[in-house]
């Protein structure tokens, strides 16, 4: 049987990315996963963790018949990796994994990518300005606007703004940005998550959604008029809801996604609900990209205590997003 092929980037080599990738043969999913990593790193980490994993070099035209095999597309490290210890000389390696996954998607070799965590700090320390997976993939694919959405625990939460200081958020929430984010969210809920008529709940920015202007004017000046325009265009978008009540079950039951104004407004609820099974999905890209919802956890690397549930969920989510012919 022929399975769709996903590129799995193993992320920061000193972190838990290689550890959790070693668990992929146990997931028993109908997909061919190709791990982008230094094959020697993967073998060394398997020995360190005492995991009996049959690791083989990836051959595009020769899919293993045994699903317990771990295929690795060898991408060499600049220097040997010490588990749990960042090395600035290996920072370009992490970027190379993403570039190769993207090239494979363009060429039709891969149906999408799933990313293990990287460490933004060490990439910046290497002299390359880098704000994250999402922004980098948007840049190399020439995508003008992307949207971060996390899914898990029965919830989908997308964000209008992502990694901004709180003091800067209000100035960034413009009618143009909000309208663009809602339209991308609506489009990808339809075309990637196969929801025919998406229903989107939108939070306010301020406590109590501004309380009719007594706690801020962003709802009156920006959010409400923008939502009204989108509703007039036929989108089922509702709000603004106070962020402290929008996650009540009786409100959520009629929705497909919640759109929060900023990172820490929506994601703590989702991460509490998902218990390490959350998935980060990048909407707006011209390809499928999902990711784990956690960081590199350098202190857990090589200890055997890293949990791979989020990676399994991310691979399953990518599979669900594939078009039927895949």
Any chance you could write out the topology, listing elements then pairs?
Elements: E1 5-9, H1 17-21, E2 32-37, H2 39-49, E3 54-57, E4 69-74, H3 91-106, E5 112-115, H4 120-125, H5 133-140, E6 147-152, E7 155-159, H6 166-172, H7 175-191, E8 199-203, H8 218-232, E9 236-241, H9 249-252, E10 257-260, H10 263-274, E11 279-283, E12 289-292, H11 309-321
Parallel strand pairs: 1-2, 1-5, 2-4, 3-4, 5-12, 7-10, 8-9, 8-10
Antiparallel strand pairs: 6-7, 6-11, 11-12
Helix pairs in contact: 7-8
Summarize the structure.
The chain has 326 residues and is α/β, with parallel strands linked by helices. It has 11 helices and 12 strands.
Question: Can you put this structure into words, describing what you see?
Answer:
- The chain has 326 residues and is an alpha/beta fold.
- It has 2 domains: 1-143 and 285-326, 3-Layer(aba) Sandwich (Isopropylmalate Dehydrogenase), CATH 3.40.718; 145-284, Isopropylmalate Dehydrogenase, CATH 3.40.718.10.
- The chain is 35% helix and 18% strand.
- It is built from 11 helices and 12 strands.
- It has helices at residues 17-21, 39-49, 91-106, 120-125, 133-140, 166-172, 175-191, 218-232, 249-252, 263-274, 309-321, and strands spanning 5-9, 32-37, 54-57, 69-74, 112-115, 147-152, 155-159, 199-203, 236-241, 257-260, 279-283, 289-292.
- It has a 12-stranded mixed β-sheet with strand order 3-4-2-1-5-12-11-6-7-10-8-9, sandwiched between helices.
- Strand 1 (5-9), helix 1 (17-21) and strand 2 form a beta-alpha-beta unit.
- Helix 7 crosses helix 8.
- The chain is globular.
């Amino acid at each position: 049987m022929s399975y769709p092929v996903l590129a799995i980037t193993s992320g920061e080599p000193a972190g838990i990315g290689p550890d959790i990738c070693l668990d992929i043969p146990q997931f028993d999913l109908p997909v061919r996963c190709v791990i982008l990593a230094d094959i020697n790193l993967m073998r060394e980490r398997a020995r360190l963790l005492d995991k009996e994993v049959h690791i083989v070099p990836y051959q595009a035209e020769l899919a293993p018949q045994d699903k317990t095999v771990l295929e690795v597309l060898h991408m060499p490290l600049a220097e040997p990796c010490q588990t749990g210890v960042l090395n600035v000389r290996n920072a370009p390696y992490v970027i190379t994994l993403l570039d190769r996954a993207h090239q494979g998607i363009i060429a039709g070799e891969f149906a999408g990518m799933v990313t293990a965590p990287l460490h933004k700090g060490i990439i910046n320390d290497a002299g390359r300005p880098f704000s994250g997976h999402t922004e980098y993939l948007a840049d190399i694919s020439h995508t003008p606007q992307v949207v971060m959405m996390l899914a898990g625990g029965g919830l989908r939460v997308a964000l209008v703004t992502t990694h901004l200081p709180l003091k800067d958020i209000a100035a960034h929430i413009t009618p143009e940005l909000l309208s663009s984010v809602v339209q991308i969210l609506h489009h990808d809920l339809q075309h990637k998550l196969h929801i025919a008529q998406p229903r989107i709940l939108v939070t306010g920015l301020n406590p109590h959604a501004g309380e009719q202007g007594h706690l801020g004017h962003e709802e009156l000046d920006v959010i409400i008029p923008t939502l009204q325009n989108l509703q007039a265009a036929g989108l089922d978008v509702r709000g603004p809801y106070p962020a402290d009540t929008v996650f009540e079950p009786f409100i959520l039951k009629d929705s497909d996604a919640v759109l929060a104004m900023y990172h820490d407004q929506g994601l703590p609820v989702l991460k509490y609900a998902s218990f390490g099974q959350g998935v980060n999905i990048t909407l707006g890209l011209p390809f499928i990209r999902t990711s784990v919802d956690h960081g590199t956890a350098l202190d857990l690397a090589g200890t055997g205590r890293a949990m791979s549930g989020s990676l399994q969920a991310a691979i399953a989510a990518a599979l669900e997003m594939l078009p039927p012919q895949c």
